[in-house]
Amino acid sequence: MEVWYSSTRNGGIRIKASEAILKGLSEDGGLFVPDHIPELEKSFQELAGMSYQETAYEVMKLYLTDFTKEELESCISSAYDSKFDTEEIAPLVHADGAYFLELFHGSTIAFKDMALSILPYLMTVSAKKNKVKNEIVILTATSGDTGKAALAGFAGVEGTKIIVFYPKNGVSPIQERQMVTQKGENTYVVGIHGNFDDAQTGVKKIFADKELEERMNRQGYQFSSANSINIGRLVPQIVYYVYAYARLLERGEIREGDKINVVVPTGNFGNILAAFYAKNMGVPIGRLICASNENKVLYDFFRTGEYDRNREFVLTSSPSMDILISSNLERLVYRIAGNDPEKTADFMKALGGEGRYEITGEMREMLGDFYGGYASEEETGETIRELQKKAGYVVDTHTAVAACVYRKYVEETGDRTPSVIASTASPFKFTRSVMDAIAPVAASGDAGQCDAATDFELVDELAALAGKKVPGAIEEIRTAPVVHDHVCGKDEMRRTVEEFLGLQG
Are 90 and 421 in contact (CB under 8 A)? Predict the structure, then answer.
């Protein structure tokens, strides 16, 4: 059955998957959503015998219905290849009573690789299908990981340029180093004086700028997005939750039909939304446990039904979650509002104006599958230390937030359903924070004043302590020259884009 896409803010829009991927964001500011969530066609016994690539095809063909079998299989085989350092692509590791789904074995050692390895291929196929002659400009805001994964995916891809904005003082030294050393004549990286929400808001304003859109079109350009607002990012993320269930079944950890819980550290809500879609496709997921850091806007939303971004923005050791405007939550709000674009538009208008909205009691009742929790900075460090001490398993700060929230959930509910924790980044990407938790003497000093070289020294110490090889993604940037050093104010983002594309004058 064919799947069509409409906007969360305009039910009159009806486009194919390839068009939604190309656009990234709807012209009305809404996000593209499928007209229905398809059911899996294969049994889990059948899926249990499949590779990651085969599972990806079985899931993605149900959403990307205007792609041919050959097109989709080509995109999948090109994406999930030797750039991943494990044959299994997304291994499941049992530690301390939970299953950690390691999503960081791609080229930039973060879960964003799972979707951004395939998005460039989906994008170029979509452009051909829709006879696009313009050069596609990928415009992206990042809280640390999306930026590098998108840059790596689109670098050198013919017919594209990519511009990434990141908060200059809001990412880890290694995250920044990964971005500013990125090669490729079609890549641009800009630090902004502001936080991630400022970068994300700026990008959305540029997308909505009709005058700029017209000028770009005259010059042979058009925008698209690599952020998780792009349906081409969301669909590939659904795959690994289906895959995780099938692997547990294959290993005899569960029986077919048994429920599992899923725990996801999240800021922009895309990763846990993918788990929600997987559940609605037929994966027997019980609770969707949403883990926040001290920027606990989502925790408060699930506890009270009120979304309020009017609060202090906290810089934490899990910077990819330092977000107060969770863009993908709009897709969930749309669904629990009965797929009502007018209601959704009103909520988003209130968020853009007063900075808050409150859902109805009826809508709250539809959130029963979700559990919101958060971990403080101190609890995050304690969790890293305890996991390493008790299980010999080293996790990054974001995964530690999830593990901490999962422990609180079990203590609060007594629910010991087998649970999968999304492990979203390699500990080597946040070495200082991880080492500060495990061996604070080695990592002593003001992290804010330390340069990347010092963090690279800690990488070697972490490798020795964890008994693991330093990932190639870290080794390759040790001595790589800085290619991008552009910095701008949060109100100068449009002008910066114009300069890069030669649109001024």
Answer: no
- β-pair type (356-358, 135-141): unpaired
Identify the three-state secondary structure at position 372. strand
Q: What percent of the chain has pLDDT over 90?
A: 92
Give the Cβ contact number of residue 19 at 10 Å. Answer: 18
Contact of 184 with 151, CB cutoff 8 Å: yes
Alpha-helical runs (H) found in 311-356:
329-336, 341-353
Note the pLDDT tens digit of each residue in 2-50: 999 999 999 999 999 999 999 999 999 999 999 999 999 999 999 999 9
Residue recorded with tokens 């059911």: 39
Helix, strand, coil percentages for the chain (3-state, nearest 5): 45, 15, 35
Rg of the Cα atoms in the chain: 21
Distance separating alpha carbons of residues 302 and 297, to the nearest angstrom: 9
Mean pLDDT over the full length of the chain = 94
* Rounded Cα gap, residues 420 and 447, in angstroms: 31
Would you state the structure tokens that stand for residue 46, as one six-digit string?
A: 């059948």
CA distances in angstroms from 391 to 384, 388, 421, 452, listed in the order given: 11, 6, 15, 29
Section 268-291 average pLDDT: 98
* pLDDT tens digits for range 454-493: 888 899 999 998 888 999 999 999 999 999 999 999 999 9
Q: Which residues pair with 372 in a beta bridge?
A: 290
Amino acid letter, residue 172: S
428/436 Cα distance (integer angstroms): 13
Per-residue tokens: 233: 């990012």
Site of tokens 């029986």: 255
Strand partners, 357: 307
Which pLDDT score is estimated for 466? 87
For residues 176 and 484, give the distance between their C-alpha atoms in angstroms, rounded to a whole number.
10
Residue 408: CB atoms within 10 A of its CB come to 17
List, by residue number, the catalytic residues: 112
What gap in Å lies between CA 282 and CA 42, rounded to an integer?
10
> How buried is 382 (Cβ within 10 angstroms: 0-12 exposed, 13-18 middle, 19+ buried)?
middle
Q: Is a pLDDT exceeding 60 seen at residue 453? A: no
Q: Give the C-alpha separation, 381 to 51, whole Å.
A: 35
Sequence-distant (≥ 6) Cβ neighbours of residue 257 within 8 angstroms:
284
User: In angstroms, rounded to a whole number, what is the distance separating the alpha carbons of residues 335 and 267?
Assistant: 19
**Element housing 160 (H / E):** strand 160-167
User: Residue 315: CB partners within 8 Å, gap ≥ 6?
Assistant: 169, 170, 195, 322
DSSP secondary structure letters along 56-86:
HHHHHHHH-TTS-HHHHHHHHHHHSSTTSSS
